[in-house]
Amino acid sequence: MVPDWRGRVHALSVADGSVLWSHHVDADAGGRTFTEPAAVYDETLYLGSQSGNTGVVALDATTGDTRWTKSTPAVTAGPVAHPEGVVVQSHQLVTAFGLDGTRRWSFSVREETARPIAVDD
Fold first, then answer.
1. pLDDT of residue 102
2. What is the domain extent for residue 87?
3. Is the dihedral of CA 105, 108, 109, 113 positive or negative?
């Protein structure tokens, strides 16, 4: 999966590089910027947007269809996917969502600088 600066996500074949599907996230609003790596878990692709209020986007990894979106400030770290959910950081705010998009919790960190985030049991 390859996200880009114009809000498009492309699924490419590992075997030959052919495009399996492309999806323009939030096309009605001019698209969103996806600069952080994507996470994949259980056939769902998770993206974090750095522009607008798109926030976290979950796409079907096979078709590119939108499963859910959750508005957050610009995502500066993550997403990181886990069987319990998806975690992103937006500047000082770390937020966890269930795999169905339900907001579970948020935690404020002191430093605003984005750092890599990880999850574990």
1. 97
2. 35-108
3. positive
Number of domains in the chain: 1
Give me 119's structure tokens.
């999850």
In a domain, 103, yes or no: yes
Span 35-94, pLDDT tens digits: 677 899 999 999 988 876 678 999 999 999 999 999 888 888 889 999 999 999 988 899
Report pTM.
0.85
- pLDDT tens digits for range 28-40: 655 567 767 789 9
User: What is the maximum alpha-carbon separation in the chain?
Assistant: 45
Kindly report each contact of residues 70-77 with a partner whose C-beta sits within 8 Å and lies 24 or more positions away, as own/partner. 70/97, 70/101, 70/103, 72/48, 74/49, 74/50, 75/36, 75/48, 75/49, 75/50, 76/36, 76/50, 76/114, 77/36, 77/48, 77/114, 77/115, 77/116, 77/117
89 located within any domain: yes
- Pick the closest to residue 55 from 85, 25, 11 (CA basis): 25
Starting at the earlier edge strand, list the strands of the sheet with 2-3: 2-3, 8-12, 19-24
